[in-house]
């Protein structure tokens, strides 16, 4: 017998390709999850998993259920939201999760344009990291997310709306504070590099490290900060240097100097994410004001 809980549990096993990892993700005991999947197979009179291989693989029937189950779950999220609005007698609501550093550039203007297209809608903004956004999208807690990481998930569609240049932030007393020429990443290998956020990972911190590694550079003197403002505070205190999105330089501070970076690959994407198969008019209104290409 198909029900929403069974479909959601099946989806977790299919995506994790492991009953153990899926049980951890669902916060249930692994034996209980295995029993639920056996009952699902018995009710459908179909074998959904090839349990004889590692990692666990889907049968042809399992692949069909995964494809259609994703659509069912997306539709149920929208249905519950619509029913909640009717039940509570509220105005329509659209919730967007966002990474803090996306709010210094073009995103605020995009949100103003979205509000203008949907004046009768309450647009709620919740700050959360990109990893949390993916789970919040799938659970229906948010309707769209603005982040900087490309996290592959079959249930989530993405659009890169900007490739934002990165800059170096240094104390006004640092040797690299002098000059207007772009700074070469190689000049930073010997510096104490302040990364943020410290957790969860992967995060923007890993993007910065990948930038160095892509140029065969390995900074070894690392200091992790909890978030952007902490990183800038450490820069001001001359505890190290940090690489930040260029729009953050709008936070003008007399004690910090911002320098461009020479490498053309020193960019960080701003990515809009939403539930795959979400066909709501509000999402269409948002996508209409957002530039970029899906991918």
Automatic annotation (TrEMBL):
Single GO molecular function: DNA-binding transcription factor activity
What InterPro entries is this protein classified in? Answer: LysR_HTH_N (IPR000847), LysR_subst-bd (IPR005119), WH-like_DNA-bd_sf (IPR036388), WH_DNA-bd_sf (IPR036390)
Pfam families (alphabetical):
HTH_1, LysR_substrate
Which intervals hold domain HTH lysR-type? 2-59
What Gene Ontology terms describe where this protein resides (cellular component)? protein-DNA complex
Record keywords? DNA-binding, Transcription, Transcription regulation
Q: Which residues cross the membrane?
A: none
Superkingdom of the organism of origin: Bacteria
Tell me its family.
Belongs to the LysR transcriptional regulatory family.
Q: What is this protein called?
A: LysR family transcriptional regulator
**Species this chain originates from:** Croceicoccus mobilis
């Amino acid at each position: 017998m198909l029900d929403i809980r069974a479909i959601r549990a099946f989806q977790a096993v299919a995506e994790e390709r492991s009953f153990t990892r899926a049980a951890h993700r669902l916060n249930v005991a692994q034996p209980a999850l295995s029993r639920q999947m056996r009952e699902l197979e018995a009710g459908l009179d179909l074998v959904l998993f090839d349990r004889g291989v590692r990692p666990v693989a889907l049968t042809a029937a399992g692949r069909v259920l995964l494809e259609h189950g994703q659509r069912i779950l997306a539709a149920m999220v929208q249905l519950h939201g619509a029913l909640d609005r009717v039940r509570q007698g509220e105005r329509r609501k659209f919730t967007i999760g966002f990474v803090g550093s996306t709010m210094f550039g073009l995103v605020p203007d995009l949100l103003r344009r979205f509000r203008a297209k949907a004046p009768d809608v309450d647009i709620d903004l919740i700050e959360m990291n990109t990893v949390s956004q993916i789970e919040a999208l799938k659970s229906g807690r948010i309707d769209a997310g603005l982040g900087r990481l490309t996290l592959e998930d079959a249930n989530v569609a993405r659009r890169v709306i900007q490739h934002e240049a990165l800059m170096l932030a240094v104390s006004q007393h640092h040797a690299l504070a002098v000059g207007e020429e772009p700074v070469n990443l190689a000049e930073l290998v010997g510096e104490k590099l302040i990364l943020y956020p410290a957790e969860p990972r992967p995060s923007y911190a890993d993007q910065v490290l990948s930038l160095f590694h892509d140029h065969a550079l390995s900074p070894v003197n690392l200091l992790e900060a909890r978030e952007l403002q902490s990183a800038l505070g450490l820069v001001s205190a001359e505890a190290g240097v940090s690489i930040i999105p260029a729009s953050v330089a709008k936070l003008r501070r007399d004690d910090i100097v911002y320098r461009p970076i020479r490498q053309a690959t020193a960019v960080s994407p701003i990515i809009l994410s939403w539930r795959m198969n979400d066909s709501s008019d509000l999402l269409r209104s948002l996508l209409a004001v957002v530039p970029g290409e899906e991918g």
